[in-house]
Amino acid sequence: MLEFLGWKPFEERKLHSKLSLTYKIDQGVVAIPATVYLQPVTGYTTRGHNRKFVVPQSRINAHQVTHQVRLHLVTILHKVVHHHCLL
After folding, report:
1. Residue 67 lies in domain
2. What are the CA-CA distances from residue 29 to residues 21, 23, 33, 70 (Å)?
3. Which DSSP string corresponds to the chain?
4. Whole-angstrom Cα distance, residue 87 to residue 82?
């Protein structure tokens, strides 16, 4: 179905979206304060740049459960689309 629609896989789209928003916050393009949401990594230097940020970690598994629900819905939609395409 993704090939039919010309979409990239969900995980790739999600990663691109997060990266794009992080860049926009860091550069001040959006009205989200960088000092609140982006914490720079301290204690060592990075190769080629100094803009490395701490990746927040969740203490609960709610994000995993919602991801599983999304995957289940995508599977159902995939079956529905293929069923209707065959009619």
Report:
1. 59-87
2. 9, 8, 10, 30
3. -HHHHTPPPHHHHHHHHHHHHHHHHHHT-SSS-HHHH-PBP-SS--SS-S--BPPP--SSSHHHHHHHHHHHHHHHHHHHHHHHHH-
4. 9
Backbone angles phi, psi at 34, to 5 degrees: -65, -35
Q: How far apart are the first and last CA of the chain?
A: 16
Amino acid in the structure at residue 57: Q
Q: Specify whether 24 is located in the same domain as 47.
A: yes
Q: What is the pTM of this model?
A: 0.54
Encode pLDDT of 20-34 as tens digits: 988 898 889 998 888
Q: Count how many domains the chain has.
A: 2
